[in-house]
Design goal:
Blueprint (H helix, E strand, L loop, with lengths): L1 H28 L1 E2 L7 H14 L1 H4 L14 H7 L4 H11 L10 H14 L13 H4 L2 E2 L9 E2 L5 E2 L6 H17 L36 H15 L21 H22 L3 H22 L28
Parallel strand pairs: 1-2
Antiparallel strand pairs: 3-4
């Protein structure tokens, strides 16, 4: 009986702690970067680190170059209402791009402090902490139109969180390649037997092969064409950005034209795939390739420098000029 009483007392005590702590957490969650969450000295340390680790891609004044800007409207639109823990985590885990993971949590917080000062947010009396729990209760401000917007029909439209390069790598590139494979592989052919080693290959787990046996054959081609047709309009969503942080020219007639070309050829490809017409799908891969190349030549690839020379769209420095029409 005494043990039971102690257990109940423990539950009551724990409940009391929750009641006491909850208002505290609520008050902390209300903090924003406008409340003076870093010091000038910390921002100075961050500025020195930024110059060594970040400026070559993001610009000396955080204005953006090969990579997106880290201050101003473009930056705030991308990070609005998100906690500083996410921003510091991205810096710590993925930056600098050519050698990620070398910054300490304290260094990441120093760089965030520099970004906040450069963005016009006020300094305070205490330094920005490096612990994730402390950073998670400090948020960047909400921008007008940043949340989901109601439409006339009562639905919602959400602002994009990815950029054009991420959409290309996540949707357009892999699904286009699935369709291109029809040239060399008959979707109606019997698939090879599964591996006998538990599904793994030498070197470990293959994320490419995972789930490949669930949807196969012509259904895989159908799904790829649908993905391209239905995802292509995302290229026209206002507010979507290019990899360098520049707003995609969604109202540019040429941008719209090339997007509509992608939609149209994807729909024709789906029709041919549903007819199980391999020859026609193979023929349409040329149109699909052209629809991509037309847009790339105008908005991604750069003209040769003066004096000639071949285009080099893989040169990282070319990213700074993408999403500008060069027709």
């Amino acid at each position: 009986m005494r043990q039971a009483s102690r257990r109940w007392a423990g539950v009551v005590c724990a409940g009391a702690v929750v009641v006491l702590v909850s208002p505290l957490l609520h008050s902390q969650a209300a903090r924003t970067v406008q409340d003076g969450v870093f010091t000038d000295g910390q921002a100075g340390r961050g500025q020195a680190l930024y110059g060594k680790q970040c400026a070559s891609c993001h610009g000396d004044k955080l204005q953006g170059a090969q990579a997106p800007p880290l201050a101003g409207d473009v930056f705030l639109r991308a990070w609005q209402s998100r906690p500083l823990s996410e921003l510091a985590g991205k810096i710590r885990n993925t930056m600098p791009a050519d050698a990620p993971g070398q910054l300490t949590p304290a260094q990441a917080s120093d760089i965030v402090a520099h970004m906040l000062k450069a963005g016009g947010f006020p300094a305070g009396a205490a330094e920005l902490a490096s612990a994730e729990t402390a950073l998670s209760v400090i948020r960047l401000p909400q921008r007008a139109g940043g949340a989901a917007q109601a439409t006339a029909g009562g639905g919602k439209v959400y602002p994009p969180i990815g950029n054009m390069a991420q959409l290309m790598r996540g949707i357009y590139f892999p699904n286009s390649n699935l369709i291109f494979t029809v040239q060399t592989h008959d979707p109606a052919a019997k698939p090879p037997p599964p591996p006998t080693t538990g599904g793994s290959k030498p070197g470990g787990f293959s994320w490419v092969d995972w789930g490949a046996g669930i949807y196969g054959g012509w259904e895989l081609v159908d799904n790829a064409a649908i993905a391209l047709a239905d995802a292509a309009p995302l290229m026209l969503v206002p507010g979507i950005r290019c990899e360098n942080g520049r707003d995609a020219p969604v109202s540019d007639p040429e941008w719209i034209k090339y997007t509509e070309e992608m939609i149209e050829v994807s729909r024709r490809t789906l029709k041919a795939s549903q007819a199980r017409n391999r020859d026609l799908v193979s023929e349409l891969t040329g149109d699909l390739s052209d629809s991509c190349a037309n847009c790339h030549r105008a908005y991604r690839d750069l003209r040769p420098a003066r004096g000639g020379g071949a285009l080099d769209p893989t040169d990282p420095s070319n990213k700074a000029n993408r999403c500008q029409s060069r027709q």
